[in-house]
Each structure stands twice: as C-alpha cells, then as structure tokens.
Amino acid sequence: MNFSDKLKFLRKQNQFTQKNLADQLHVSRKTVSSWESGRNYPDIKTIVKISTIYDIPIDRLLKDNNIVNYYDDKIHKGKTHEKLQKIFFYLTSIIIFFGYIELYEPDGFHIPLIGGLVIINAIIINIFVLRQHFFQNKNTTITLLLLFTIILIFNVIFGIPKKFLDILLTNRNNDDFILGSISGRLLFILSITICTTIEIVWIYLKYQFIKNRRLKK
Q1: Which residue range is the domain that position 190 belongs to?
Q2: Per the UniProt record, which residue ranges are transmembrane (predicted)?
Q3: Which residue has the higher pLDDT, 146 or 103?
Q4: Does residue 160 contact residue 152 with C-beta atoms inside 8 Å?
Q5: Which of 14, 29, 63 is the last residue of a domain?
Q6: What is the model's pLDDT at position 6?
Q7: What pTM did the predictor assign?
Q8: One domain for residues 119 and 207
Q9: Are residues 133 and 31 in the same domain?
C-alpha cells in the first residue's frame, strides 16, 4: 500500500473526516486531501504527529518508495540550495565591498561596471530573497525595514562625496545632466543599501544557527 492510500485507510479506520484530521494537525482540509491523492506529502514533523494520532510506528507509515524518493529529492535540493546561497553570499559580499569603494570614491578611485552589478544584485535579492524569506512575518518585516532605513540614512549622508557635488555645481546649467546624475546616484545608494541590509541579516541568521547547534550539543 502506498503512502497516500495508507493515510486514507488509517483515517477511515479511525473514523476521521479530512476536516477532523486537518484540525488536529493544524492544516487545511485541502492539504490533507492533497496528501491522500498523492499530489503532495507532509513534512517530517507532521508525519510524527500523524503516527502519534494513529498510534502507528513511523517506519510502517513511511514504507513507500515514492515518499522515500520524495524526501531524498528534497534533501538533495536543500543541499543544492544551501550551496547556491553560500556562493551568492560571497559574491554579494565582494560586490558590496567594491560598491562602497565606488560610493565613497577615495582619491577619485573608480571601478567600471560596479554600479550596474550592485543594482542587478539588489534586483535579484528583491525578487528571490525578500519575497520568499523575509516578508512572511510582520515582526521580521518591521525589523528589516528599520535596519534598511538606518543604513539608507547613513549612505545618503556619507555617500554623496564633495567631488560629486562639485561636478553638479560645474554643470548646474545642464538640467538633464543634473537630473540623470542625482537619479543614478540615488538608485546606486538604494541598491547598495538593499544588498547591505540582507547581508547583515544573513550573517545574523548564520550566527544564530551556529549558536543553536552548539547549544544542542
């Protein structure tokens, strides 16, 4: 008997409706229906709860090649995702480092294309990181926005060097140049602020993860 059929059999054997089981597991009835139809599988914590509710050993519940393959695939994808996160973290760190050098322009130092890389990096972070991981919880969102605001204020105050202002003053009669320069500068500051904010959050989360793992040992 495969996992989905086993779930359905155990539920009926215990005279539960899908709604009864869903309420005990704190999920929706549609979620239970997706498990029983084989469209989806519960996570490990939920499987432990199911085994407790039905008083059946977990190994008996999981004796199904499909679900074993499902979790093997999930573990593999998780490891791949973790590797990609590390690569992206290090690349972002390098881009931020050179981005701030470009922002403050020490002794007129200039790095071609770094502004574009910072902006592209910020767009990627906004699409793939912020939406998926940081805007799901109200408290997390507030903390993130507060940190972002502090870094943005700092970058606006210190990220407009005298050399940039002198260039604007020299071209004060060229409205298009001034508008383009200010817009580009603000976009660059906004982008590097997004990158820096997420990088700080990542470092903090990594620290918390390592700390919790040590405490468990």
Answers
A1: 76-216
A2: 87-103, 109-130, 142-162, 182-205
A3: 146
A4: no
A5: 63
A6: 85
A7: 0.58
A8: yes
A9: no
